[in-house]
Amino acid sequence: MSFDFYSTPPRLPLGKWIEHGLDFVVEHAAPATRAFAGIVETGINLVENSLMMPPPPFTIALFALLAWLASRKPGLPLFALAGFLLIWSMGFWPATMATLAMVVMATLLSVIIGIPLGILAAISHPTERAIMPVLDLMQTMPSFVYLIPTIPLFGLGKVAAVFATLVFALPPAIRMTCLGIRQVPKELLECAEAFGATRWQRLCTLELPLAAPTILAGINQTVMLALSMVVVAAMIGAKGLGGEVWKAIQRLDVGLGFEAGIGIVIIAIFLDRILLKIGARAARNPR
Questions:
Q1: Is residue 152 assigned to a domain?
Q2: What CATH number corresponds to the domain at position 111?
Q3: Are 249 and 257 in contact (CB under 8 A)?
Q4: Which domain holds residue 60?
Q5: 11 in a structural domain
Q6: Cα separation of 60 and 14, whole Å?
Q7: 223, 273, 283, 215: which is closest to 63 by C-alpha?
Q8: SS3 for 111-160, per residue?
Q9: Any domain includes 84
Q10: Residue 164, Cα to own-chain centre: how many angstroms?
Q11: What is the tally of helices (H) and strands (E) in the chain?
């Protein structure tokens, strides 16, 4: 009896299993997903309306003031002033505020979920061994794949975009929180134990303050990943600057695509530099 090594083996129906699992979740978790969608949509609208309520010059001045408070140097405030004035002059102010609202919401959810999971992974080796392979999968899976389950769960729009962005941008917050706590010198931990500090006291008064620069670096990466999902999320109805880029792709409008892309770059540089300055200040003055 001969065996053909080049023959195709029996197909493993992995895709069907995943599809059935998603159908089960959609069928039985509809109330939970609707509640989550309502909370997230309310948060997005609140942030977006807060950014859109003042006139653009006032908001631009506020961004420049925030840049000054973070850097204490004129370079970043001048960049914020010039950059956001350019966005306003190109007619992308509402789209930019919508993009900022989605990024803020996705980052906030990533921090709320990621930092506690990172702390848990840092203090529990079994939890770390269970979480890290999942994070590897989340970081290596193509970002377009995350759009597929969001449509049956949350429909089209900003909520689905925030959920897809959350899954894509969450790993750095968990990893860097775990790394920062693990890097706290053991000598300091032993001193705290010698003075009778409890595990909770050590975490709140020693480990988290010393790990703050590393945690902020993780949040910075989360923000950048969230911004990188802006254009991808536009495919499922998210508007903002990503929607303008997607519109330019569909119309082959080079000018519109570059203008919207420049807007995304300005936001990315602005947020990145502010978080870097805050992280550097936390590293110089740990509490």
A1: yes
A2: 1.10.3720.10
A3: yes
A4: 26-284
A5: no
A6: 50
A7: 273
A8: HHHHHHHHHHHHHCHHHHHHHHHHHHHHHHCCHHHHHHHHHHHHCCCHHH
A9: yes
A10: 10
A11: 14, 0
